[in-house]
Design brief:
The complex is a heterodimer of chains A (291) and B (323). By secondary structure, chain A is an all-alpha fold. Chain A has one domain. Chain A contains eleven helices and two strands; from the N terminus they run ααααββααααααα. In chain A, α1 packs across α6 and α1 runs antiparallel to α8. The longest helix of chain A is centred in the first third of the chain and has 31 residues. Chain A is globular, with a radius of gyration of 19 Å. Chain B has 323 residues and is mainly alpha-helical. Helices cover 76% and strands 1% of the residues of chain B. Chain B has 14 helices and two strands. Chain B has a two-stranded antiparallel ribbon with strand order 1-2. In chain B, β1 and β2 form a beta hairpin. The longest helix of chain B has 27 residues. The chains are: A mainly alpha (291), B mainly alpha (323). At the A-B interface, α4, α9 and α11 of A face α5, α11 and α13 of B.
Chain lengths: 291, 323
């Protein structure tokens, strides 16, 4: 019982981070209609920014996380300006390839800046936590869940309750129409990219104490977040979070009871089953595929 | 029009002649690089069939490449077939594998198919890494004999080069035939408008599966050739990253013709050999270069060349002389 509880909590907490990345991807997808193939690199880059503030400059971890997320906001805007905006009228696959190019730049740039030796950052919560079921988990898992929950609530409030959020949603639904009613489309899309990069980057800072940071971690994390989106329902923010949790749980329980080597394979088998049985995902998306 | 066709054939033949003469001044290392580039070209051609002709974006091509390679290696090493039969069997086997999977995967449209193909890629890579009885697991498969036919063993790099070059030329010709055939036209009808194609009587599920099967056949040949050439297979070769590389290559060259696949493959494969001193920064330069190219010319080098040709041509016709 204790072990199951322990696995459940660790699955849930890695799951919420996948959920954060997936949420970032969905925000961008809804805004521009193209999947962002460099989202995993946001996670890695955010983790490294956090490492810079926390380890190299020696600041408190909470301050580092906040600074890293601000930095990621800037990175997100730059990324949008360089890799997406010039191509907004081109075919989707040109945008995909340009994002892949950007992800190579991120990966190699961080290797040149921070080196290829894996690094770590401080934990938010040092002490282990006792569970009701009798198991003990690392405090960081709890911290991840709390921070992620706050972030998700923040994104929800921002999108649903504020003027900026409504502007962003209007742009996501129909760029042309939004520009007709006076929405500055470039500002709105830049906001979306910044928000997406910020929440993903914080995810990187939170995961860093559990798994070492290195410049190739983005690809794996991106692949899992990608599975989360498809499982949860393409284009739905709630679906992305739920899909992230499912991916996290499948990963941890599959690793414990079936096979550690087939973890990623298991996730993708779940993905293909979901695609075959319910292609629209668990939550069906608001934006339907055009005929 | 006829003139244009003739001149493009002349250009292609000249390029082929340059290629055929290339190994004369080259060491074994450069030849190996060239051989691998030609094999990569076959895989990029498979992306051309799917993406350029049929409009379906797949990230599973490196996985299919691996299926062909492991199939050929198993047929030669474990079942004891001669390499020629293994080559054909791996091609047919991979084609069949892709064709059958196509029926399941093309129930999903566009984006969803792309996602499923990422899944397929990951699953195949997981199998290559862990399925020890068949793929040798993490150690891979070793000591695959060189290709031989009618008692002639292709020992040297140079012999292999000509062999692979002949196969590449043959597949290129087959692709041109496919392009002008009715099945090729139905691919393009699906690419341009699937619903309209269905209305014209194109069975889109079957047609897309055939396209996936053809791309599987190309990857199968490439895989078998790679197995015989390198003599060693490791799961690290057949990765999702490799698949993304194929997409980058075809987008770099241009998706409008198989020539785009040649241009893209050769630029990416050979460039890094010529700028060795910059190896540390190479990936960074690649990434930035791809971004810049996509921004400047989203249709790839070939698309850009075509647009340039058309503007020049138009200017000539509507210029003061013509009037």
């Amino acid at each position: 019982m204790g072990q199951i509880m322990q696995l459940f909590v660790s699955g849930l907490s890695t799951g919420v981070v996948y959920g954060l990345i997936a949420m970032g991807m969905v925000l961008i997808f809804r805004a521009v209609g193209v999947m962002n193939f460099a989202q995993g690199e946001f996670l890695m880059f955010g983790g490294y920014l956090c490492y810079t503030f926390n380890q190299l400059l020696g600041w408190n971890i909470m301050i580092s996380l906040i600074l890293a997320s601000v930095g990621m906001g800037v990175v997100g805007v730059l990324f949008m300006r360089a890799a997406y905006w010039p191509l907004r009228k081109a075919q989707a696959r040109a945008i995909i390839v340009s994002a892949m190019g950007a992800s190579m730049v991120f990966k190699e740039g961080s290797r040149l800046i921070w080196g290829s030796i894996p690094v770590k950052v401080d934990r938010v919560l040092e002490a282990p936590v006792k569970l009701a079921g009798g198991g003990i988990i690392q405090g960081q898992y709890l911290a991840i869940m709390i921070v992620a929950a706050i972030l998700m609530l923040f994104v929800y409030l921002l999108l649903e309750k504020t003027f900026v959020g409504h502007v962003m949603q209007a742009t996501a639904q129909d760029q042309y129409m939004a520009s007709m009613v006076g929405v500055p489309v470039i500002f709105s899309i830049a906001m979306t990219f910044a928000l997406s990069a910020m929440i993903t980057g914080i995810g990187g800072g939170l995961l860093a104490p559990l798994f070492f940071l290195n410049n190739t971690m983005g690809a794996t994390a991106g692949a899992k977040a990608f599975a989360a989106i498809v499982i949860g329902g393409f284009g739905s923010v709630q679906g992305a979070v739920l899909g992230g949790l499912i991916v996290g749980l499948v990963e941890v329980f599959g690793g414990a009871y079936i096979s550690t080597t087939y973890q990623l394979v298991l996730i993708y088998i779940v993905l293909i089953i979901v695609l075959m049985v319910r292609p629209q995902g668990i939550f069906s998306s608001k934006i339907q595929e055009k005929a | 029009m006829k003139n244009k066709k003739k001149s493009s054939i002349i250009v292609l033949l000249t390029a082929l002649a340059v290629f055929a003469l290339a190994p004369l001044g080259m060491g074994n290392y450069m030849l190996r690089v060239l051989n691998v580039a030609l094999i990569t070209y076959l895989c990029v051609l498979s992306v051309y069939v799917l993406l350029g002709m049929c409009g379906q974006n797949s990230f599973a091509q490196a996985g299919l490449w691996g299926v062909g390679a492991y199939m050929a290696a198993n047929l030669v090493l474990r079942a004891g077939f001669p390499p020629v039969i293994a080559l054909f069997a791996a091609t047919a086997g991979t084609a069949l594998f892709a064709f059958v999977l196509g029926f399941a995967f093309f129930r999903l449209r566009q984006y969803y198919f792309t996602f499923a193909s990422v899944g397929l890629m990951t699953i195949l890579n997981g199998l290559f890494m862990n399925w020890e009885p068949v793929t040798g697991g993490a150690l891979g498969m070793q000591n695959i004999p060189k290709f031989s036919v009618f008692g002639i063993m292709l020992e040297s790099e140079k012999a292999n080069f000509y062999f692979i070059l002949i196969i590449c030329v043959l597949t290129f010709v087959v692709m041109r035939i496919l392009f002008y055939s009715s099945i090729g036209r139905s691919f393009m009808a699906i690419r341009d408008n699937e619903i309209a194609a269905n209305c014209m009587g194109v069975n889109s599920l079957l047609t897309k599966s055939i396209a996936f099967g053809i791309s599987g056949a190309l990857c199968g040949i490439a895989g078998a050739l790679y197995a015989f050439l390198s003599g060693y297979l490791s799961y690290q070769t057949f990765t999702y990253q490799q698949s993304t590389m194929y997409l980058i290559m075809i987008m770099l060259g241009g998706t409008i013709s198989p020539v785009g696949a040649i241009i893209g493959t050769m630029i990416i494969s050979l460039l890094q050999e010529f700028v060795r001193p910059l190896a540390n920064y190479m990936q960074l330069i690649y990434g930035a270069g791809i971004m810049i190219l996509m921004v400047v010319q989203p249709e790839g080098i070939l698309g850009g060349g075509k647009a340039l040709y058309e503007t020049l041509h138009k200017r000539k016709r509507t210029g003061p002389d013509a009037a």
